[in-house]
Amino acid sequence: IDADYVVDEKAKTATLTARGIAKAEEYFHVENLSDPSNSTVSHHINQALKAHGTMKRDIDYVVKDGEVIIVDEFTGRLMFGRRYSNGLHQAIEAKEHVNVNSENRTLATITFQNYFRLYDKLSGMTGTAMTEQEEFGTIYNLDIIEIPTNRPNQRDDHHDVVYKTEAGKFRAVIQQIKECHEKGQPVLVGTVSIEKNELLSKLLSREGIKHNLLNAKNHEKEAEIVAQAGKLGAVTVATNMAGRGTDIMLGGNAEYLARADLAKAGYSEEVIVDATGYADTDNQEILDARKLFAEKLAQHKSEIASEADQVREAGGLFIIGTERHESRRIDNQLRGRAGRQGDPGETKFYISLEDDLMRLFGGDRITNMMERFDLDEDTPIENKMLTKAIENAQTTVESRNFQSRKSVLEYDDVMNKQRELIYSQRRQVLDGMDIKETVLNMMHTSIGNHVSLAFGGQQHLDAAGYREMLRGLEGMYFAKGAVSVPEAEVPGKSQEDFDQAFIAAAEDFYENKEAEITSPIMRELERVVMLRVVDEYWMDHIDAMDDLKQGIRLQSYGNNNPVDVYKRESLEMFEEMIAAIQDETVRRLYSVRLKKDEEVKRERVAKGMVENVGGDGTKPKKQPTRVVKIGRNDPCPCGSGLKWKKCACKEYHSN
Asked: Tell me: the pLDDT tens digits for 264-310?
């Protein structure tokens, strides 16, 4: 192959070719890139290839204020705080020439499916569940019931029209928008990515068509833009976020217009929220805002009523889909924006053979069909068979994605059992459970393992073996000299004899330590140390399980079921982690030393002396105190459970 790497868009992977491997080996001065010692370099190269080959700007992520922010492929919204794992996010940051931040450490992990399964009852309502019936049934054991519409559906869903090229498709979309715009019919155009969203916006601007643009880059205006998408002659271009949760009412949304009037009048967002609510209040500002809101709402409703009739006469809201999404559910959600509550409406999807879905999953049948008709790029095909073929392509992708999610869940189910065990025990410790007996049992196990290792299956020890065994226990579990067996008597002692002697000495040592620092402090110390150790080892275990999962699929080449191998090996790893947690907890509790007040004071004095010695003899500047502002509707920090505005505590209401 005449290339350094190959991108498989279908599987979303990028791999080096033989030529690329040779170049990488030369650049990084390594003899064999596949050698285990070069696995780190190989991993970074693979992630860099993925960042360049499969991750696309304004589709998978956006760059905002010098940061790479992930875009949710289903909602089109920005996912602040989320980062790709395994160094992929760093590779994208390097690609986009922004600051490369350090990799996050996973403290805890759970799949959405297992998170939802934590609830005793699961239910929900959506207008687009029927396409996902199999998944809801398989994963959550949920039945789906279709409820008839409140009023008869008057929406006209046109057949898909297919064009040869993307340019031809967009010309047709612009023409359709022009026709609707001229007769005052509002249009909502759905796009699958920010990139296509902005391209269509430029084409509309070139034609002089005034429109509103909505994507993840201006998501804060989402409700405001979508609420008015039903106004006479309105044109709205949106990604598949499409403002769900905000009603597109024909003629415009009176409530949002009234809220905008309150904002213009100078009311804060907090007051506007209270003004549009129904809670009892004696605050004059809120009462005035409510009065103004009611007046403006009535005014806008009367204005909108006649406009709504004009929009109905024009045909209602026209939904244009510029591409089919991988999931039919997303397309159905876009369709569902029109024809609400018996209103008229129209929907139409414009597709080209250059669209990702058609190119990757459409198959030869659709291409051959288009070639047979031998049409130019501005001539569309409206054909039921073609529409069916497109839906079949979507069904294929949905099935692949479902199998992928099902596979992830199979692996996470193994992890879930371990997760439940760790977190249930962790919860008991957090709730104040007395774990002294648990700690002593851990100590018994640790000492027993140490002695067993020293004996190594023999019946008796010699003097050298005894000294070696004692060296690992003295000074840790008990003071030097606390257990003293004459070397002449060592060969006559059994493993059980040593176990009893060492455990008795260790218990005495622990009781003396508890008497020195008091029982309440010792109980708290046990809990703190146990939680710290569990958290540290659980984090390492998550990483180890992730590494195991990466390579476990190769087991299928040996005619082994990867999930079964994963279960077996992960159980061994979990048991090793539990043993390591026990050893480390006991080791830390036996070696911990609490500082007395005098020692802490001496440290503070010494630290102060060091800090105050400056070249000019000046004292360090005092750091400004940060004042946290409490919102009127925030819970009062005093713990009364009331909102701040309703609470009367002196501590936080001194002014």
From this structure: 888 888 888 888 888 888 888 888 888 998 998 888 888 888 888 89
CB atoms within 10 A of CB 509: 17
The phi, psi pair for 476, rounded to 5°, reads -110, -65
pLDDT-based confidence at residue 654 (cuts at 50, 70, 90): low
Distance CA 422, CA 426 (A): 6
Q: Is the pLDDT of residue 592 over 70?
A: yes
Q: Identify the three-state secondary structure at position 280.
A: coil
pLDDT digits (tens, 9 = 90+) for 490-506: 788 888 888 888 899 99
Structure tokens at 329: 């559910």
Check: CB of residue 41 under 8 Å from CB of residue 33.
Answer: yes
The span from the CA of 41 to the CA of 45, in Å, is 6
For residue 187, the model assigns a pLDDT of 93
328-332 contacts, C-beta under 8 A, 24 or more apart: 328/131, 328/391, 328/394, 328/395, 328/398, 329/128, 329/129, 329/131, 329/132, 330/74, 330/240, 331/394, 332/127, 332/128, 332/131
Contact in structure between 199 and 174 (CB atoms under 8 Å): no
pTM recorded for the entire structure: 0.65
Q: What are residue 149's phi and psi, to 5 degrees?
A: -70, 155
Token pair belonging to 456: 């190594």
Are 57 and 96 within 8 A, CB to CB?
Answer: yes
**Residue written as token pair 């291409």:** 367
Average pLDDT over residues 179-183: 91
Amino acid symbol at 577: M
Residue 532 has a pLDDT of 92
pLDDT tens across 7-17, in order? 887 777 888 88
Q: How is residue 508 written in tokens?
A: 């005495």
Task: For the chain, give the number of residues.
Answer: 655
In 3D, which of 246, 244, 290 has the Cα closest to residue 267?
290
Mean residue pLDDT across the chain:
82
- Best CA proximity match to 278, nearest among 270, 267, 269, 286: 286
Residue type, 507: E
Three-class DSSP category at 219: helix
Termini Cα distance of the chain: 76
* Residues 300, 292: Cα–Cα separation, whole Å: 12
Decide: residue 198, CB within 10 A, 0-12 exposed, 13-18 middle, 19+ buried: middle
Q: Which residues contact 256 (CB under 8 A, 6 or more apart)?
A: 223, 224, 227, 228, 246
- φ, ψ at 28 (rounded to 5°): -90, 5
Helix (H) or strand (E) holding 48: helix 39-53
Distance CA 156, CA 45 (A): 51
Q: How far is CA 437 from CA 155, 217, 448, in A?
A: 69, 56, 16
Answer whether 234's CB lies under 8 Å from 187's CB.
yes
Coil/strand/helix, residue 238: strand
Long-range contacts of 21-28 (CB under 8 A, 24+ apart): none
- Tell me which DSSP letter residue 380 carries: -
DSSP structure string for 381-410: EE-HHHHHHHHHHHHHHHHHHHHHHHHHHH
Beta strands in 186-302 (DSSP E): 187-191, 212-214, 235-239
Quick count: other Cβ atoms within 10 Å of Cβ 202?
9
Tell me if 442 sits within 8 A of 585, measured CB to CB: yes
More confident residue, 373 or 332: 332
52 vs 14: CA distance, rounded Å: 9
Model confidence at 119: pLDDT above 50: yes
